[in-house]
Amino acid sequence: MFVWPIRVYYEDTDAGGVVYHTNYIKFFERARTEMLRSMGFEQDELVTNAGVIFAVRSVQVDYLSPARFNEYLSVQSSVTEIKKVSLSFAQTITRGSVECCTANIRIACLDAHSLRPKAIPENLLEQLKNEY
């Protein structure tokens, strides 16, 4: 499991000081990007060197407990399925021991130019299989 800390900024909240629902999706995205980075893969380099991008194929989210301005959260990310052209993640945002939001997210690997499905680069695929 990969864990990434997030601080809730004022811009992340609605008028009531509660994290706006779509910003949880941004937090999940940042954690997946940082997970790749921690493995030595930068998304801009994957575009340049491997000709691939990752796009969200589907998202299923459950909002459980509101997070508020200035709180310190953790985003846990686990790879739950690895296929030739897609990855599935289980992600959870917590505030201490309280679950704020959970999601199951499927990511598709696409050719950076044609936007058609393309195999995940072999070196990334192997590292994901070894670590997750």
UniProtKB/TrEMBL annotation:
SUPFAM superfamilies: Thioesterase/thiol ester dehydrase-isomerase (SSF54637). The keyword Hydrolase applies. Keywords: Hydrolase. GO terms for molecular function: fatty acyl-CoA hydrolase activity. The keyword Hydrolase applies. Pfam families: 4HBT_2. InterPro entries: 4-hydroxybenzoyl-CoA_TE, HB-CoA_thioesterase_AS, HotDog_dom_sf, Tol-Pal_acyl-CoA_thioesterase, YbgC/YbaW. It comes from the Bacteria. Belongs to the 4-hydroxybenzoyl-CoA thioesterase family. This is Acyl-CoA thioesterase. It comes from Crenothrix polyspora.
